[in-house]
Amino acid sequence: MRIGFYIKYDSNQLGQIVGEEKYAKSICKELVKLNGVASAQVFNPSILPSEKLDVMIHLNDTWPNSYAYKHVLYFQNFYHQGSDIVLRQLQQRGFDGYAFFSQRLLDLHLQSGYRGIFLPLAADTTIFQPMPQRPSHQFDVVYIGNDIKGKERTMRYLHPATQFNFGLFGYWNQPWNSMSSGELWSKLSKGPVTRKQSASIYSNAKIVLNYTSEDSIKWDAMNLRFFEVLACRSFLISDRVPSAKREFHDCMVFTDGGEDLTEKINYYLATPEERNEIAERGYQYVTKYATVQVRAQELFNYLLQILR
Prior knowledge:
Elements: E1 2-6, H1 11-14, H2 19-31, E2 39-43, E3 53-58, E4 68-75, H3 83-90, E5 97-100, H4 103-111, E6 117-118, E7 141-144, H5 151-157, E8 166-169, H6 179-188, H7 195-204, E9 207-210, H8 214-219, H9 224-231, E10 236-238, H10 242-247, E11 253-254, H11 258-270, H12 272-289, H13 292-307
Helix pairs in contact: 2-13
């Protein structure tokens, strides 16, 4: 089987590799290890297949094209105009299969008479794994991410951490509505980091924070940070995504933000044994059930059905 992942962005033009391209490359690396997979590669408008593929997996709202015999939409983005509305539009494009990282969107899809699978994100454990101690990466509390969640959620889920030894990484040089708030995060941020650097920062931090967009709560979808942090045997505190509470109920801690987050940071900084026990459960769970190796096999099994 010759498999392609198609991304509508050209990373050379963007000047950086977008998140879905990094994740797709991790999946490709595992797919080619499976019996029956001849090739797996990521494509974009500047890098196209030289011969027709068996299946192309679309990671954005692109159209099925002539580069493959079968086409699968992997719905792993949200849309401001309404993800359910965009899904109905994409269903009309004639894809041969569908995969979703949101169970609620998959449910809507199935109710409309279509077929598909639930394929949540996962950790690349060749990158995200427990790393050696590194003094420059040792913080009480850490967050790695970009300024894309909006002022209200950022103040609610990040601002309580600023009273501790807090490490903030990512793109935070664009102020949002409040100039003073934007300046705060811009000053705190130590800038973007690579995935390997992220693994080291997670491994060395006492507490890692995660918070998601409103769409993640509405459509019940976990971001990559859930899996990558736990794969580093790190202790995670996150906002309450329903699927994460079901899957990781005893592997991490959930918060409502604000004072609740401050109290939980104080408590778990003072109880390292309990913190480490929870982190160990998360590590064991992710490395067994939620790696890119597991997802690659699940995806391959689905593609076999489509190509019959």
